[in-house]
Design goal:
This protein is of the alpha+beta class and 221 residues long. Helix content is 33%, strand content 28%.
Length: 221
Amino acid sequence: MTGVGTVTLRRGPRWVMAETPPTELLLASASPFRRKLLEAAGVLVRVVPANVDEPALKRGLAAGGLKLGPAAIAEAMAAAKAEDVSSALPEALVVGADQVLALQDELFDKPGDLAAARAQLERLRGRTHSLFTAVALAQDGRVVWSKVEGATLTMRNFSGAFLDGYLSRAGARLCQIVGGYEIEGAGIQLFERVDGDHFTIIGLPLVPLLAELRTRGVIQT
């Protein structure tokens, strides 16, 4: 539900109250997971995917003179997505989000195919990695708010047979997920310990985002 405010208009000797149009909320992501999270929370959004070369931007942020850490990279990526859409649709409030998975100094991207997903899961097996999830709001082509949250996850030393079965059941949708696992489903069986907010791990720091949307009058308080 979007918020609606009022403005006072003067017409001749009389004052009248008129409703201001609601702020449209856009999601600068094609991720079905983020859209479902927002809609399940009662927040309606229009999906307008950002035109950002994510792998190239991530490489640029991690290298060169910046050499940002994974949390800062996630925040910069979320901001870039939100700003890209906001520059074309400045009246709307745009949500951008991104995740960065780090195994020590090694950063992971979404696997390109199931073979890459297998390789990532084999790399993470029996080890502890960090997952940083960022969300940004942009309006008039600039970021007006952002938030980064982190989680720490430890994978168990699962068998090759279990991995085969998991990849077969989950299929190609794993290629849309950084790290190649789906913790809200059967992927939870890959882990022996998970420390962090559930929504952050899935892909969106939902609770702080909802609080900010209430502050801005986009959803009801």
